[in-house]
Amino acid sequence: MDRRARRREETIREILDLSVEVMAEEGVAALSLAEVARRMGMRTPSLYQYFPSKTAIYDALFGQSARDLNETLHKATAGLDALDRLRIGTLKFVEWTRLNPVRAQLLFWRPVPGFVPSAEAFAPAVDNVTEVRTVLEDAVADGLLHPGAATDEGVALLNTLVAGVVSQQMSNEPEAPVGEGRFERLAPTVLDLFITHYAPHGGGDQP
């Protein structure tokens, strides 16, 4: 990129980072473009040169956050076997949400009334779900899990269990040091419950 394009990209990143900062202080739905502009040292109308609306900032943050989460998980699980990818990926997911509570709320809850991410911003989130299913399918293929684990119901159960850990931690102990929260420490146990339920022979109440 030329100098002007690089400068624009840097400004966009700064706007998004400051937006997260404001949301952390005031609440995800309480993002103020005027406050972001003030912290940028510019007038509010100048912000519209980069984002036409508050919704556009939410949309950019959604896509950016989903991509960052995917990259974090890929880096942590590269080269591991299926069950280790599942275990390490789950722990990294929980850790990422603790380190990025504002972004996690935007991705996994509905804190902004009426906001729906664009197809482009939502695509990395779809990739994440696809990757989870692939890990489960690999574990089934390796004889490590019952085939039910890789069904829609299995994926939904895993997401529900992990989301429950994250939700409880964020709701009840948001200030606990990362890795030390009493709910997030349950993540390995919750995952063991899932793996036991979908044991390769029997699979809990699966056929």
The structural domain count equals: 2
Sheet with most strands = none
Which shape, going by the Cα principal axes?
Answer: elongated
Tell me the strand percentage band.
Answer: under 5%
DSSP, total strands: 0
CATH topology name of the largest domain, in short, is: Tetracycline Repressor, domain 2
pLDDT averaged residue by residue: 94
CA distance, first residue to last residue: 56 Å
Percent range of helical residues: 55-70%
Structural category is mainly alpha
How are helices and strands ordered from N to C? HHHHHHHHH
The Cα radius of gyration reads: 19 Å
Known CATH architecture of the largest domain: Orthogonal Bundle
Just give the CATH class of the largest domain. Mainly Alpha
**Unreliable stretches:** none
**Total helical elements:** 9
Organism: Planotetraspora phitsanulokensis
InterPro entries: Homeodomain-like_sf, HTH-type_TetR-like_transc_reg, HTH_TetR, Tet_transcr_reg_TetR-rel_C_sf
GO molecular function: DNA-binding transcription factor activity; transcription cis-regulatory region binding
Domain HTH tetR-type: 9-69
